[in-house]
Write a structure and sequence with these properties.
Largest sheet of chain A: 7 strands, mixed
Shape of chain A: globular
Largest sheet of chain B: 6 strands, mixed
Radius of gyration of chain A: 13 Å
Strand content of chain A: over 45%
Oligomer: heterodimer
Order of helices and strands of chain B: EEEEEEEEEEE
Radius of gyration of chain B: 14 Å
Number of helices of chain A: 0
Largest interface: A-B, 21 and 23 residues
Order of helices and strands of chain A: EEEEEEEEEEE
Number of strands of chain A: 11
Number of strands of chain B: 11
């Protein structure tokens, strides 16, 4: 699993609440990213980071914020949750010098 | 940007049959094409990949073929087994430091015993 952890595993929010999904890795990988997975939609990139202090938007960034203050952590923040953000969220890392991505175990988020 | 189309969305086969999943891509700069398998409730995991300088790659019962001219690549699973039942995703992108893959929408493969 390339040492990628995600917390929590499950979360239920009410519309308008905020929360942070955590992603951590212990192998000093520079590249980290966040995806959301919805039925029939595949994996869509939300935000990614190529190193500490550097982040960029992916395909579906609206409603999400990220920061990368350390190499180890890449949290995803929902400032005001909406039902449309109900999804399974995967964090991924990519070891330097490779193109292979390794996914974390995922967080299943439900927004009521 | 890259656009990846994946077909079929659902594939049902009998145990022992072969299964083929096809993907097309739009960006001619894409040169790295991985395939992921996702079992129910689990994370996607890489099962095989191919680069544009290779036309075919095999690993036991799975193989991937690539047609750069037509911009399509396919996953072939022979002698399917019930444990092959999963969702399979293809992806495409340009290899390198800024590699950002675009994923297909997935194929749900069901292998009936």
């Amino acid at each position: 699993n390339a040492g990628v952890t995600q917390t929590p595993k499950f979360q239920v929010l009410k519309t308008g609440q905020s929360m942070t999904l955590q992603c951590a890795q212990d192998m000093n990988h520079e590249y980290m990213s966040w995806y959301r997975q919805d039925p029939g939609m595949g994996l869509r990139l939300i935000h990614y980071s190529v190193g500490a202090g550097i982040t960029d938007q992916g395909e579906v960034p609206n409603g999400y914020n990220v920061s990368r203050s350390t190499t180890e952590d890449f949290p995803l923040r929902l400032l005001s949750a909406a039902p449309s953000q109900t999804s399974v969220y995967f964090c991924a890392i990519r070891p330097g010098g490779t193109d292979t991505q390794y996914f974390g175990p995922g967080t299943r988020l439900t927004v009521l | 940007g890259e656009n990846v189309e994946q077909h079929p969305s659902t594939l049902s086969v009998q145990e022992g049959d072969s299964a083929v999943i096809k993907c097309t891509y739009s960006d001619s700069a894409s040169n790295y094409f991985p395939w992921y398998k996702q079992e129910l409730g689990k994370r996607p995991q890489l099962i095989i990949d191919i680069r544009s300088n290779v036309g075919e790659k095999k690993d036991q019962r799975i193989a991937v073929t690539l047609n750069k001219t037509a911009k399509h690549f396919s996953l072939h699973i022979t002698e399917t087994q019930p444990e092959d039942s999963a969702v399979y995703f293809c992806a495409a992108g340009e290899s390198g430091g800024s590699y950002i893959p675009t994923f297909g929408r997935g194929t749900s493969l069901i292998v009936h015993p």
